TrEMBL record:
<feature type="domain" description="Signal transduction histidine kinase internal region">
    <location>
        <begin position="352"/>
        <end position="429"/>
    </location>
</feature>
<dbReference type="InterPro" id="IPR010559">
    <property type="entry name" value="Sig_transdc_His_kin_internal"/>
</dbReference>
<keyword id="KW-0472">Membrane</keyword>
<dbReference type="Pfam" id="PF06580">
    <property type="entry name" value="His_kinase"/>
</dbReference>
<dbReference type="GO" id="GO:0016301">
    <property type="term" value="F:kinase activity"/>
</dbReference>
<keyword id="KW-0902">Two-component regulatory system</keyword>
<keyword id="KW-1003">Cell membrane</keyword>
<keyword id="KW-1133">Transmembrane helix</keyword>
<keyword id="KW-0067">ATP-binding</keyword>
<keyword id="KW-0808">Transferase</keyword>
<keyword id="KW-0812">Transmembrane</keyword>
<dbReference type="InterPro" id="IPR036890">
    <property type="entry name" value="HATPase_C_sf"/>
</dbReference>
<keyword id="KW-0418">Kinase</keyword>
<protein>
    <submittedName>
        <fullName>Histidine kinase</fullName>
    </submittedName>
</protein>
<feature type="transmembrane region" description="Helical">
    <location>
        <begin position="261"/>
        <end position="283"/>
    </location>
</feature>
<dbReference type="InterPro" id="IPR050640">
    <property type="entry name" value="Bact_2-comp_sensor_kinase"/>
</dbReference>
<keyword id="KW-0597">Phosphoprotein</keyword>
Amino acid sequence: MERRKIKDDIKRSFIKYAVVIIAIILFVYLISLYLIFNVSIVKPNQKINEQVAAEIEAGFEEYRAGLSSLIKDETITSFLSGASGGNETNRILYDFRNEQQMNADFVLLNEEEEIVATSYYDGIEQELSQSIFMNELVNKANKNGMIEERLNKRIMDVNHDASYVFTAAIPGSDGTIGYLMFFLENQLPSTNNQLLFVTDPFDNVIFYSHSFALTTLGKLELEKGHFIQSDTDYFYKTRTTISENDIQVITLTSINSYRLLLFYGLLTMVVSSLVMILVVWIVTPKILKKSLQPFDALVTMISTKNHNQHFQKEHIFDEVQTIYEEYTSKINEIQFLVDQNQEIMEKRRLSEMKHLEAKFNPHFLFNVLEMIKYETLADPENASDMIVKTAKLMRYNANFGDTTVPLKKDLSYLEDYFSLQKMRYGKRLNYSIQIEPYVYEAHIPKLMIQPLIENAIKHNINETHYLLVELTIEVLDETLMLIQVKDNGLGYVA
């Protein structure tokens, strides 16, 4: 399993949470931009569109209703039938026109298509009378009774342009006695960031506040969708259809400033985010190094096992101080148990060594004394030698001072022990010691080898005619020695 460092985890966490915070800020910023766009662009655009559509629809409906009423007015019909009442007819028509929100000029024709009343200035009547388009309107009115349509050609001079016309034939007792026309002027308001257009179902412009996107044929060419692009200009579009005659009301709102706000805002957010991440990347290691310095010192102390190191309390956190105190407490407790166990083991080892030292085989001593008794009569000199060796054995066995002795000293004891045993058993017992001279000074536990040799003799001497005990000592490495005791007794396998 891969090992991790707390610094790396904290650094990754800092960067991860920084990215999350930046993402949240960016998300909130985008939401705010959307709300701003909705409040400052979409809502005003839709409001103006609805307002214009309502005014157009209401204005058109007023002219339709008014025209239907006027062609039945007795004053007007009497005037067209040849009676007097021209002034009253003009007053009625002027009053109606002036009451409407949508500006218009009226023209009243008699049966011979002559202008008998109009709101246009003097001198326009002749131009109107000579217009072919007027004759077309009269023909359509004779056929349909009442018509309304977009004017697709100019019927007067440039200063008296009309966009839409309402025409109705005035019926009399013997047929049509005249014609009444209302010419609506292009009257949409012009604003700084709103472009208004009113078109028919075929995108022919009726009213407009700006010539943007208008063709030479009077059509409005705009892209589909809510967003319109034209060169370097960008607009938000709202389109509403008026139920009567499928009149279209289009509102365009400039979003150039909003695009700049969006672009530079996002650019600022991206740059700020990168700077923030860079600052976190650079500053976090320094902060962690300073903040985790006591923790690092604690880790170093534990890893190097430098338990004597002490912290200055004013430079560390309470948490680290608590860990340090708990750790040192456990270390001291463990060290106390180790020392206590070591003391117990040492006492146990000394006790075993002393027990081993005190465990001198009394049968061996009795047998040696018996041999000395007979040797004193037979060979006093040999008996004297046996006494000396027995004394040395007793002295070495009774010395409770050291628990470890040089190998050379313990081998001297074994030589005396073998010598006494051989005096007892004669040719039935023999031994050999093989050891490298440079290990003579190596220390071994006292009397560690003698019990092994004693057991070899004790359990095999009466079971064989000739017992050979071999002691070999060899060095395996600088700290390990191999000691072997072999015999050819019952357990020996050739």
